[in-house]
Amino acid sequence: MPEITFEDIEPGTTETFGPVLADREEMIAFARAFDDQPFHLTETAARTTGVGRLIASGWYNSGLQMRLLARHWFGRSSCLAGLGIERQSWLKPVAPGDRLTVRRTIVDTRLSAGRPDAGIVRFDCDLGNQDGQVVMQTRQAVLFGRRGAPMVPLSPPPPCPDTPPSRGGGVEDPEAAPRCFEEIEIGRAVDLGTYDFTEARIVDFARLYDPQSFHLSREGGAAGPFGALAASGWHTAAGWMHLYSARLRRIAEAGRAPRASVSPGYGDLRWRRPVYVGDVIRFASEPVAKRPLASRPGWGLVTSRNTGWNARGETVIEFTGSAFWTMGWNEGAVLTAKT
């Protein structure tokens, strides 16, 4: 029996978990796997960018926060699934050797309209460093089982390792890719390619960043809420970043990349369906808005809608992201914002 169920979670209550070390080698390993922009890889490479120093990927910071939540809260509870992220803001850089602590505050709770055995909990997380600075803020929603209610697992579909079809976004020619804010075309979707969710990839990611039993083994998955081994939602998001950073690398190799393309965060993330062993997910990104930044001369902010879907045509993830882009192909632009 879980120690904590939906009924035990009270709005307004706060807990603190951690600390966890932002280990240099682990940071770089994550970047190589999922976000290989130069300022996440080495000090030398970072000095050639507008960021100027080695910092962790924002998605790595998300993973460390999830590690703390899984070990100290979700793993003791009737947690069934993450529903989504209303917003996550990357406020300050995380450097190698930082020690991070998460402060979690319950915002509200309500019974699930579609699942009488569960309730929905919304909560805020402030991820802080050893200097008392908040480096990341998150508001998200998670589904918890009710006390005494038997868990009703999903019935996983048959394996479908086929390659998902495109939804109309074109494969980008790096030679014609946008190299600055002005060249980004609103409404022009880019097909980022596909990511294979193998059993080894799913388990390896979960061990480090989301060690809940239903992400760690076939046996745990079969006994869990998804009915089979399923990828962490954070792994699905990292799969998108893996392909998006590969896009940036292709643009850079064509001599057209912005000097830096860092993000202040994202929002409206929804995990629509589980991703199971063998699923191949296709991802796309479509700019939906952009604006120059009066507070940061020479830079603009681009907002994009990002999606991933499986071979059955089912959307598994969607979110709205944002990124800083240089204006006017300004080689010397230096991003002095919270990077």
Automatic annotation (TrEMBL):
Region of interest (Disordered), ranges: 152-174
Biased composition (Pro residues): 153-164
Residue span, MaoC-like domain: 23-111
Source domain of life: Bacteria
Protein name: Acyl dehydratase
Lineage: Bacteria, Pseudomonadati, Pseudomonadota, Alphaproteobacteria, Hyphomicrobiales
